[in-house]
């Protein structure tokens, strides 16, 4: 099952189990969404449960917040993370604060699905990775799956959560894992162990990282597409590293991170977003606070650059095998 199919399955399962779950967004109904993630849901559940909206991200999120306050569980889709900014005020000033503002009399159970990241030649308006904006807002959770199995289980957990969740989908991984080599044939999820997705209901609790590879030489922290790129580079460089897929940025499974870095003594952080104030900065600070006396080398970060996402220089901006490999080599030399 691809990640698109897995997310569609999660929506299907939850809409069948819970009559309060509704799906809304631009073209999510008859058309099935820009990436066809919601295909077939309107036909199955009707236009009152899966419906199209005007082109207004602020309106989509604002309306979802109102529906949540009245007892529904909306799952709005924002077509690309680059377009979510008109809705930020609603997310920050309303969704994140309802529980606190009402002394828990009201909650805001919305799950905002947001395709994000690069690798599809989308240029500056279809490739951004704004996850750190959301991790900075108290009152919301931020989830980033890297494979179909996790995507379904985490999305179900997000939809059952009573607080707002930003569910960020790495669109480069929708149809297959990406190892960072854009000039090689694309891979599909067929025969990949993480594409073995159970039918029906299951959930993966938010706040639990996954140790993808166990090792003793260093710890690599990644999420989304970068999990697959880092895994490929570790294999190419023969590094006996421990690769941790964070899966959720808030809540963060700091215990798993701390245990790994204390064991290996080295830490590499990889993400697509720009470097300055990216989530890697928070990870680096946490690792330094908790593991300083166990570190044998400076913490390394491989990230996007502090520029708008460039169309013509996408593969220079993207944290690919060359830059990750160089960081691995530096860490292992120290």
Structure, explained:
The chain is 35% helix and 17% strand. With 334 residues, the chain is α/β, with parallel strands linked by helices. Strands 7-9-8-11-12 form a five-stranded mixed beta sheet, sandwiched between helices. Strands 4-6-5-10 form a four-stranded mixed beta sheet. α9 crosses α10 (279-291).
What is the compact description of this entry?
35% of the residues lie in helices and 17% in strands.
Which features does this protein show?
five-stranded mixed β-sheet, alpha/beta, 12 strands, globular, four-stranded mixed β-sheet, 12 helices, 334 residues
Strand-helix topology:
Layout: H1 3-17, E1 21-25, H2 41-45, E2 50-52, H3 57-69, E3 73-77, H4 88-95, H5 98-101, E4 111-116, H6 131-135, E5 141-143, H7 148-160, E6 165-170, E7 210-213, E8 219-222, H8 225-236, E9 242-245, E10 248-250, H9 254-264, E11 267-274, H10 279-291, E12 300-304, H11 314-317, H12 321-333
Parallel strand pairs: 1-2, 1-3, 4-6, 5-6, 8-9, 8-11, 11-12
Antiparallel strand pairs: 5-10, 7-9
The residue fraction in helices comes out at 25-40%
* Uncertain ranges: none
Cα distance, first to last residue?
42 Å
Helix and strand run: HEHEHEHHEHEHEEEHEEHEHEHH
Average pLDDT metric? 96
Radius of gyration: 19 Å
| Major β-sheet profile | 5 strands, mixed
Alpha-beta classification: alpha/beta
Strand content: 15-25%
Net shape: globular
